[in-house]
Design brief:
The complex is a heterotrimer of chains A (about 260), B (about 350) and C (about 200). Chain A has about 260 residues and is an all-alpha fold. In chain A, about 65% of the residues lie in helices and about 0% in strands. The chains are: A mainly alpha (about 260), B mainly alpha (about 350), C alpha+beta (about 200).
């Protein structure tokens, strides 16, 4: 590990930014693969727009970290060991080309991302605050779009509600781990820590409201602090597979410019 | 992209009202743009419908070879750019289908005809894209050819199609520049990158030369589609302009122009330097060995390396998404606003 | 490539039934910046105007700077025929109690329609007539749409993104491409080659 990377991975404030960047990178990665294969042309275009948002947001945050620690944003994005990524495994659960799964995954995530971006906008670093605010304004579009689809599908046909409910049942087992705290080996200063249970409560309230309107159900508990997962670099195989695929071309010719 | 190698049009002008036809052809010759609501020959109406439909189909299928590489793009900027490009292609498909929808064919019917093989699309999208450099070559050569072609289509006579061409070309400019940027980067890069790029060039040079379609019939300008300005430049003229632009550019990049033999999977099995690819100082034109037109027609008929798979993938996405379309159609329209 | 794209497929003989017939068509106009006229961007398929609005923002709203979008069902517009001679129209004064109609005109054959203003009169015929009279001079076609059938995006809605869009615009590559070509070719060859570039782009 090079020193700058080490510095990044051991800075409590930086890893809070890194986890959002990693979440968005992989969520964007999974969703971008749908481009050209969506169920409706206009919907394909809209969801691809949002996948590009997530990838761009990740880039904005990697650039911020790159500036602070003297690293190339692409190196941060592509060249860590799998155990050094802090994304929640929710974002790389394979969707098996099931559009309901891709929709619910994004919906569960956007309701988490919005308040987290609000929290990042309260940090002292002005550069980070400015970036977080811009990202937050665009995240609002995702919340609106995805909420609308959840309501339409939930209160639409039995077939649609059934498929969405199944996707919720599959993904809700991962959703709690969105709230896992990264950096358990560090001793974060209280001022850097974001209140986990408050965040969960906000997420739970907002998602529950939409679920009720849509006639859908979800039960997610906040996992206890001892449960380790993606945010501490302990990932499922599907994450490693996504990460490997992402780096295929790059790793075949290391150091090359693309 | 594309719009070239137009579907064969069986146009019989003798079936039209001859007075109105003469007036129509006069207006076309004067450069007047035809708008919906104007009288037009039935053959023109059907011809424009099929032309826009074929073009739209090409965008929809064209999105697939490049889509294969989104998950493996080697930098965030390239990943974003490739996603945006493929997204643009779906957008172009949507815009082109609109032209045909207005001429009377529902969009879903067009998608269904595409995925069941009843209608066709540009044959260049039936070739494999086995490496990252293929993406660079597609965007440089194929989008480059498409731009040359689409600029002439924007000079056509049918208002709705011309408006669509203008809008598409504004995005096509990004596609091409992105491709150029990638090819330039690769050819200034490592030995491995240059070798990969040469191989990709070998695969895509032939399809690009054939992009504009077979050699023109001798009197093509006096007959529809050119007579009706559905098409405003001949295949051979466009091809020559393509060669004059891209042959010297490729050579200056350090690429070698080969005549290639390919197997049934679209992979090059043998190649030799194209001795004909030289500048004729007298005419100012670059030469090229005439491509294998048998291969072209074979691929158009559905026997190209990737025809079956790509159409199948598109059909799969259509069938997998049917429940979403059903759900939206089932009357969720007047939803109350969120509380 | 991703697993789904690689796999082989088998299909039933029949496709699932089509659903197109219940879809609406919505016309979209985009506004580049505050105070600029709304301009025709295209139309799209959607189940209702709310979804159409979201789709429009992500399709036509992403081409270039865009601060506001208008939409209406395609069946709501009333147009003159395209005419190469002056259109006949009679003006009537605006009536504050009457419905408002947005007016768009096409200047020449082949042009897109552009917002000109509005008229406030009792019915569609009067609206078209008044619109022709007030805005139709030198225009090829005049279109009126009842304002209350139109949807509009909210004033502060983000449409065109604030993060760097250079990756998806031709101008995001021009400098880089030019600099890289310089390493390979003589200037006059680059200029000759560039003649076929598209000059007009987002």
């Amino acid at each position: 590990m090079t020193n700058p990377m080490n510095n990044l991975l051991n800075a409590p404030e930086a890893i809070l930014v890194l986890k959002m960047a990693d979440d968005k990178l992989f969520l964007g990665h999974m969703q971008s693969d749908w481009t050209g294969l969506g169920p409706i042309l206009e919907e394909d275009i809209a969801s691809s727009s949002m996948a590009q948002d997530d990838l761009s947001h990740a880039l904005v945050l990697y650039e911020y970290l790159g500036n602070r620690f003297g690293l190339d944003p692409d190196v941060i994005a592509y060249e860590r060991e799998p155990g050094q990524y802090l994304c929640c495994d929710l974002v790389t659960v394979p969707d098996e080309f099931n559009w309901a799964t891709s929709l619910v995954r994004r919906w569960l995530f956007t309701h988490y991302a919005a308040p987290v971006l609000d929290q990042l906008a309260l940090f002292e670093d002005k550069e980070l605050v400015e970036r977080a605010r811009k990202l937050r304004a665009e995240e609002a579009l995702h919340v609106e779009y995805l909420d609308d689809w959840m309501r339409r599908l939930g209160s639409g046909s039995d077939e649609a509600r059934d498929r969405i409910q199944k996707a919720i049942d599959l993904l809700s087992t991962h959703a709690g781990m969105l709230f896992e705290l990264p950096g358990r080996d560090l001793e974060p200063d209280d001022s850097f820590c974001c209140s986990r249970s408050e965040l969960f409560k906000e997420w739970d309230t907002n998602t529950s409201s939409v679920l009720e309107q849509a006639g859908l159900m979800m039960q997610v508990e906040l996992p206890d602090l001892k449960t380790i997962g993606g945010r501490n670099g302990v990932h499922a195989d599907h994450f490693a597979a996504a990460h490997a695929e992402m780096g295929t071309v790059r790793s075949a010719d290391p150091g090359a410019a693309w | 992209m594309s719009g070239a190698a137009n579907p064969v049009m069986n146009i019989d002008p003798s079936l039209e009202d001859q007075d109105k036809l003469a007036e129509f052809e006069q207006r076309i010759a004067e450069g007047v743009l035809i708008e919906p609501g104007d009288w037009m020959p039935q053959a023109y109406r059907i011809g424009m419908l099929k032309m826009a439909e074929h073009h739209a189909n090409s965008e929809i299928i064209g999105a697939l070879p490049e889509g294969e590489w989104i998950t493996r793009a080697p930098s965030l900027r390239r990943k974003l750019a490739l996603t945006a490009k493929v997204q643009d292609e779906i957008g172009h498909g949507q815009m082109l289908y609109r032209v045909s929808q207005d001429l009377g064919k529902p969009r879903e019917e067009m998608l269904r005809d595409l995925i069941t093989g009843k209608t066709k699309y540009h044959n260049c999208f039936n070739y494999p894209a086995p490496t990252w450099a293929d993406i660079a070559m597609i965007q440089w050569l194929i989008d480059g050819a498409a731009i040359m072609n689409q600029k002439t289509l924007a000079d056509g006579a049918f208002g709705p199609y011309v408006r669509t061409m203008h809008r598409i070309n504004m995005e096509e400019a990004f596609h091409f520049k992105s491709g150029e940027d990638m090819v330039l980067t690769l050819m200034s890069g490592t030995k491995k990158q240059k070798a990969m790029t040469q191989k990709a060039f070998d695969r895509w040079w032939g399809p690009s030369v054939m992009f504009f379609g077979p050699h023109d019939k001798p009197n093509c300008e006096q007959l529809p589609p050119m007579k009706w300005r559905m098409k405003t430049e001949s295949n051979d003229s466009l091809r020559q302009r393509f060669l004059n632009r891209f042959a010297p550019a490729a050579l200056d990049l350090g690429l070698v122009v080969h005549v290639c033999e390919k197997d049934d999977d679209g992979m090059v099995t043998s190649k030799k330097v194209d001795e004909a690819c030289v500048l004729d100082d007298a005419t100012g034109n670059w030469g090229v060995t005439d491509p294998d037109w048998d291969e072209f027609f074979r691929v158009i008929r559905g026997n190209g390396p990737c025809n079956a798979h790509r159409v199948a993938l598109r059909r799969f996405s259509y069938e997998q998404g049917a429940w979403v379309r059903r759900a939206i159609a089932s009357g969720t329209s007047s939803l109350p606003p969120a509380a | 490539m991703s697993k789904i794209r690689e796999q082989g497929f088998t299909f039933a003989d029949e496709l699932p039934p089509a659903t197109d017939s219940v879809v609406g068509h919505y016309v979209v106009y985009t506004q580049k910046k505050e105070g600029a006229p709304h301009r025709y961007a295209g139309w799209l398929n959607a189940p209702d105007i709310d979804m159409a609005t979201k789709y429009a923002c992500e399709h036509y709203g992403q081409d270039e700077s865009c601060v506001n979008i208008w939409l209406h069902d395609r069946t709501q517009m009333h147009e003159t025929p395209v005419s190469d001679t002056p259109l006949p129209g009679e003006d009537t004064p605006d009536d504050p109690g009457a419905p408002t109609w947005a007016v768009f005109t096409q200047k020449r054959r082949g042009d897109i329609h552009v917002e000109q203003g509005h008229v406030q009169v009792a019915d569609q015929e009067a609206a078209l007539s008044a619109a022709i009279s007030r805005f139709g001079m030198d225009m090829t076609q005049v279109r009126v749409v009842p304002r209350d059938s139109m949807a509009s995006t909210e004033v502060d809605r983000v449409i065109w993104r604030t993060h760097d869009q250079g990756y998806r615009l031709a101008k995001g590559y021009s400098k880089s491409v030019r600099a890289k070509w310089d390493a390979f070719r003589k200037t006059e060859d680059i200029e000759e080659y560039r003649k076929d570039d598209i000059e007009n782009h987002f």
